[in-house]
Amino acid sequence: MIIREALENELSFIREQRVNAYVEHSAKIPEGHWMALKQAILSEGDTLPGVERIIAEIDGKIAGSVVLFPARIDAYEGNVEILDYPEIRMLAVSPDMRGRGVASALVTECIQRAKAKGYQAIGLHTGDFMETAMKLYETMGFERLPQYDFEPANDGIIVKAYRLSLTKD
User: Fold this and answer.
1) How far is CA 24 from CA 61, 148, 151, in A?
2) Among 9, 69, 113, 115, which residue's CB has the most CB atoms within a 10 Å radius?
3) Which domain CATH number covers 117?
4) For the segment 22-41, what is each residue's pLDDT rounded down to a tens digit?
């Protein structure tokens, strides 16, 4: 597996891959919430200044991707206060590439980048319907921060906040 920066000409593929990776959740949530999530993962938020787009490549194919937002940026359009640490967003693994460690490799890369920049923590938010993702984050040592949860569509679906301290031994 090769972890590298996404190339500009790969962005449209990566965005569509995100939709394909997330579409399984559409049956668990109201249609309005799915449409908002789909719009967010297809958006050009991944092109904001300082945002890093990272991909995992296996056998010459893009297996998955993640976006690392810098600290002190409005990554959630005002739903969350500006945080002093980078935020992992839009983690997606192609369904046919799951079970190969792609997601954990991408999250580990984000953690290493945040540490290299001297940050004390790294965070992320995930929908409460994404059970597999939450299990991964908790296994990797991320802790819940309910004070930064939000409900973007007023439909009872909570986007849960997590943070990993980077100063632990």
Assistant:
1) 21, 26, 20
2) 69
3) 3.40.630.30
4) 999 898 888 888 888 888 88
Answer whether 55's CB lies under 8 Å from 62's CB: yes
Residue 37 to residue 23: CA distance in whole angstroms: 10
Contact between 83 and 145 under an 8 Å Cβ cutoff? The reply is no
Tokens linked to 142: 């991320």
For the chain, the residue count is 169
14: which 2 tokens?
């990566």
Name the token pair of 66: 């993640």
In this structure, are strands 87-93 and 61-69 parallel, antiparallel, or unpaired?
antiparallel
pTM for the predicted model, two decimal places: 0.91
DSSP lists the bridge partners of residue 165 as 121
* Domains in the chain, number: 1
Q: What is the largest CA-CA distance in the chain?
A: 44
DSSP label at residue 91: E
Please calculate the CA angle 166-168-169 and round it to the nearest 5 degrees: 125
Q: Which domain holds residue 14?
A: 2-165
